[in-house]
Design goal:
The complex is a heterotrimer of chains A (237), B (298) and C (299). Chain A has 237 residues and is of the alpha/beta class. Chain A is built from 10 helices and 10 strands. By secondary structure, chain B is mainly alpha-helical. The chains are: A alpha/beta (237), B mainly alpha (298), C mainly alpha (299).
Chain lengths: 237, 298, 299
């Protein structure tokens, strides 16, 4: 569904992505692993239209997304949950969710309210806190809010940049349970993660990014059986 | 009785300062930028109105609409030329200096439109109201009402509409708003236009109450707006309104107690004290502590 | 030399001191709207020392330098925890407070049949030292220009020094500078005091040259012009502020017949210039590139 072809992106003079190609299948959880500085966040930003690639293409369901800019990419159905959550701290939870529906026109107001109710059903904690400023939520709750907010745009694929970063293990478990449930309900997900053990529990397919290139790709079984990767990422001897 | 009268006068003037402060707070809130050309935009609108008035003959309301439209257009022009090209974080000082250059430009254009320097600026003729010993000028009361209505309209726009949600989200975190599909550069334009309209309303109120206009009005209104925003707390809209009212009260009381020549001194002294003792202003303490607005270069 | 040309050049030299003082504050990462205050203090002190006390010009200028530095240091201490907008506005308030206070300071004495001394809004007239000592306009220009050149020479000498590099680092990122073991406060205060001294000195020369000063001359417009020159010129080199001064006064004096419309054209041009060269004409990047090229040729 999402196919990335030979993507090259640079920050000034430094090439952060040196020709990345990958494929995220419909209804699957695709996971990108990689050490710090491998270019994972650059990849996410390029896919979401925040950074413009030097060359290569990104396409979603046969639509070309390359170089469209974030607002248009989002309208095409690709939503990004950025790292470190970035909720609107001074606005209420409810307003944050409304903000997620920027792309929906006013005529669909009733539908927007429906969607918000669905989010409240999925994330009961957000309903309980709906009129609190988002800045007062805990890290885990903010992550849920950011996730729910991204879903408000009714994406066909959801990109998540390190959802587990800075959260306690219990909360991480909860977040991954939510990801699993979302996927079960039919959402296609592209996940960037450093926590390989956790990622193994949810992902259907893996890409390993190293120094701006895809160093490995395969199913969880192939990943588990690869000695080098096992040693480097799964902490096994 | 005198204290009451002075306070009432102060509130009347303060309501216009509140609008000026709000314009600054709007722009600073969403762009983290200072528009030095703000007062010059208002001056341009007013000068244009004076220039066109004899040709059109629409009277006081004509002045009102042309002043407002001229100020809003000038403000939008300033945004395109001085702020849109410097939207990066490092561009704050550059944008400010560019707006200073346009201040000079608009000042000069306005001076050309006002060849005699001091021109009459027609106000609305309304009878003065008396409540026992206390009097209120009819036009000032109307202005107070206009300021109140403007503030309420702004509140509705920001808190009850989709555009308002967009603006507030962008003020909170431009990166996230962009990710969620907001066209952030376009919003900057909208906010400058809005600030121009608010400022234009304030300019009409001040000038028609005074009955005349000089080219010095530009500098004067930039000062008042900035000061109202600083007293109230940078980045807080409510703060800007309160700050404007306080500024009006302080000015009239200082003028009544110490004489007109000490009025401005007291004002600047107050602002300096506020900055040194409580840099966040009255309302903006939270903003000052949590937000890094304070750390960012102007 | 043509008298008119000489006085234009002198004015440019004097305003260059103000632009340089704004530049020094920009180096440590702050924007000041209040450098005119130190210019003003320098002017009044030099006037008082030479005209009121009858001392030599050297003492007058020394007083201007010291006065400017001390006042700037005081302001720096008061605003130590402010930065960005807050600092800029507090300097503006400081300058305006000073200006309004001068409106109320009256201390005149009769010297040689003339009322001498600060006289409220009327200002300080008859600062006649350079006339009494037969300095021609060109002589004075020579004096002011050589002082400016010495100052520029000093700043150039320091350009690659440890001190200047650290100051630039403090300006760029105070937290980083602190983590490198430098005290941002100390550099900040030092440079603000230095900027006060430079502005004060310029103000002293201004008073001597103009022979009459009054509070209205030292309004915020003066300070913002100085700041604008520094930014337009660029922060890459101490010559940047000078470039800004030359561009504005020099270019515009030469098309005087357009005086009434000059700001309409010039204001727009400056804004456009900043669109294409946001870091000013002599931006740090351009200076670095020129230096590399020049260095290569020499090798």
């Amino acid at each position: 569904m999402l196919s990335v072809n030979n993507l090259v992106t640079s920050y000034g003079l430094i090439k952060a992505l040196k020709g990345v190609s990958l494929e995220a299948k419909e209804g699957a959880v695709t996971c990108i692993l990689g050490p710090n500085g491998a270019g994972k966040t650059t990849l996410m930003f390029t896919l979401a239209g925040i950074l413009a690639p030097d060359s290569g293409t990104v396409s979603l369901l046969e639509h070309n997304l390359t170089g469209l800019g974030a607002p248009k990419v989002l309208r095409q159905g690709l939503a990004l949950v950025p790292e470190n959550r970035l909720v609107f701290a001074d606005m209420s939870v409810h307003e944050n969710l409304l903000a997620g529906a920027f792309t929906q026109s006013r005529a669909m107001a009733a539908q927007v309210n429906d969607d918000i109710d669905k989010m409240y059903a999925r994330f009961p904690i957000l309903k309980a806190r709906h009129d609190q400023p988002a800045g007062t939520l805990s890290g885990g709750e903010q992550q849920m809010l950011a996730l729910a907010r991204a879903l408000m745009s009714r994406p066909s694929i959801l990109l998540m940049d390190e959802p587990s970063v800075g959260l306690s293990p219990l909360i991480v478990d909860e977040i991954f349970a939510i990801i699993k449930q979302l996927n079960k309900d039919g959402m296609s997900i592209l996940l960037v993660e450093q926590n390989a053990t956790k990622a193994l529990q949810v992902a259907d397919y893996f890409y390993l990014l190293d120094q701006g290139k895809v160093a490995f790709s395969g199913t969880p079984d192939q990943l588990k059986n690869d000695d080098v990767i096992k040693r480097a990422y799964l902490g096994g001897g | 009785m005198d204290v009451l009268q002075t306070s009432l006068d102060g509130l009347m003037i303060g309501s216009t300062y509140a609008l000026l402060g709000l314009s600054f707070a709007l722009i600073f809130g969403i762009m983290r930028r200072i528009n030095l050309a703000f007062g010059a935009c208002l001056l341009f609108g007013a000068a244009l109105a004076i220039y066109l008035e004899p040709l059109l003959g629409w009277g006081a309301w004509g002045l009102f609409f042309i002043t407002m439209a001229g100020a809003a257009l000038a403000s939008a022009y300033v945004e395109r030329l001085c702020f849109a090209p410097h939207s990066k974080r490092s561009g704050a000082v550059t944008a400010m200096i560019a707006s200073f250059a346009i201040w000079m430009q608009l000042d000069e254009i306005s001076s050309q439109l006002l060849p005699q320097r001091t021109h009459a600026y027609q106000g609305l003729e309304l009878p003065t109201l008396w409540l026992g010993e206390i009097s209120v000028r009819g036009d000032q009361l109307l202005h107070f009402g206009m300021a109140l209505v403007s503030i309420i309209l702004l509140y509705i726009l920001l808190y009850k509409t989709r555009l308002g949600l967009l603006i507030r989200a962008t003020a909170d975190s431009p990166e996230s708003a962009y990710l969620l599909g907001a066209r952030v550069p376009w919003l900057g334009f909208v906010v400058f236009f809005l600030a121009g309209i608010l400022g234009g309303v304030a300019a009409f109120m001040i000038l028609s109450a005074d009955g005349h206009i000089t080219p010095l009005f530009g500098l004067w209104s930039t000062f008042k707006g900035l000061i109202a925003m600083i007293i109230g707390g940078v980045g807080s809209l409510l703060g800007a309104v309160v700050g404007g009212l306080i500024l009006g009260l302080v000015e009239t009381h200082a003028g009544a107690a110490l004489g007109a020549e000490f009025r401005d001194m007291v004002t600047f002294g107050l602002v300096f004290l506020v900055l040194v003792i409580r840099p966040g202003g009255l309302m903006g303490v939270k903003v000052y502590r949590t937000d890094n607005a304070a750390q960012e270069r102007v | 030399m043509d008298l008119y040309l000489a006085s234009v050049l002198t004015n440019m030299t004097l305003i260059a001191f103000l632009a340089l003082s704004a530049y020094l504050v920009l180096v440590v990462g702050e924007v000041s709207f209040g450098q005119q205050a130190f210019f003003c203090i320098g002017a009044y002190l030099t006037a008082s020392v030479t005209a009121l006390a009858g001392a030599h010009i050297v003492w007058g200028l020394l007083a201007a330098i010291l006065g400017g530095a001390v006042c700037a240091l005081l302001l720096g201490l008061l605003t130590l925890r402010l930065s960005g907008l807050y600092f800029a506005i507090s300097t503006l308030c400081f300058a305006e407070l000073l200006r309004f206070s001068l409106l109320h300071i009256r201390f005149t004495r009769l010297i040689d049949g003339r009322e001498i001394g600060p006289d409220g809004p009327e200002g300080f007239s008859n600062i006649r030292w350079i006339f009494e000592h037969n300095y021609a306009v060109t002589d004075f220009l020579l004096l002011a220009a050589s002082c400016l050149i010495i100052l520029l020479g000093l700043l150039f000498g320091l350009q690659r020094s440890h001190l200047m590099l650290t100051a630039h680092m403090v300006g760029h990122d105070p937290v980083l500078a602190q983590s490198q073991g430098f005290s941002p406060h100390r550099y900040r205060l030092g440079f603000i005091a230095l900027s006060g001294a430079v502005a004060g000195f310029g103000g002293g020369l201004f008073a001597l040259f103009n022979t009459h000063i009054e509070p209205a001359m030292f309004g915020v417009m003066l300070g913002v012009h100085g700041l604008a020159y520094a930014i337009i010129g660029g922060l890459g080199t101490p010559l940047g502020p000078l470039l800004g001064v030359v561009l504005d006064i020099g270019l515009l004096e030469s098309i005087r017949q357009l005086a009434a419309y000059r700001m309409i054209v010039f204001g727009g041009l400056v804004a456009l210039l900043l669109v294409f060269r946001p870091e000013g004409i002599a931006s740090p990047r351009l200076v670095a590139r020129l230096r590399r090229r020049w260095g290569r040729r020499r090798v």
